[in-house]
Amino acid sequence: MMRPAYGSWVEVGSTERPTSETAERRPLWRRRLLVGIVGAAVLLTGVLVAAWVTAPAPARPRQVVLGRLRDVGGRFVPLRAISPILQRAIVATEDERFYRHHGIDLIGLSRAFAYDASHLTLSQGGSTLTEQLAKVLYLGGNDDSPWRKLQDAAVAIRLESRLSKRTILELYLNSVYFGDGAYGVEAASERYFGVSPSRLDLARASGPRRVHQGGPGVGCASRSATAGQRFGTAPIEAQIVAPDTSFARLPLVAGLTLLLVGLASFIIARRIQRPVAFALAAAVEIASLTLIARSVKVA
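RE: above sequence
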């Protein structure tokens, strides 16, 4: 007995397979899924590479800080002349993993993202001290968009690869705005407490970075307790770590990785024979070569 099947007559019980046209339809969703995954990966890669390439190079950070202080009549204070208590309090209250990350705090960033997602807000920045320094010295403004966050991170990684933690903290304390026209730690300590930065105690050092209208003491108690719980009694020198120079090669490693991804994308594109797949693979290769060239130039 003969019955029509897939547009042709075949015998009932025949083991003949469907036509090639039908066989091509079945894995179509797999191809679309594969192209979608590759496309999303290329898009994300392109955004990251663009943020890295367009971010300003952190040239001569100390001179930039000195210039900013000169414009407001301030004075640069070396870290040795700043109270160790203040140093530890700033780290404890602003970036408690400062000595353990390399410019980006993934744990803090994850917590900030989870909070924002649960509250449908963008109030939690998750910025490290190094990212804040990058924004103050090279990016400026109050833009907290995801694009600006990526640029902050790019500049922060470069700063961490070139400067020690001690230098980064020193530059931060001399450049941050403490409110009421006080730029830098010396202006803030003199304005609010009438003492030099070397004489700040825990209660004063743990005060809010931007002082409350009720006076500099408002909010100090809770922040002092937080700072005391976090940094304990270990000397600040024990927390200082040397700069991780391996991060200087991060763009090169990322570029070489993308190069391999691009080659794999070309292999996939040849297999599925889709123009869009070839275009995406070419985009990955271009991005990888751009990143490699940029890293070699910076190095």
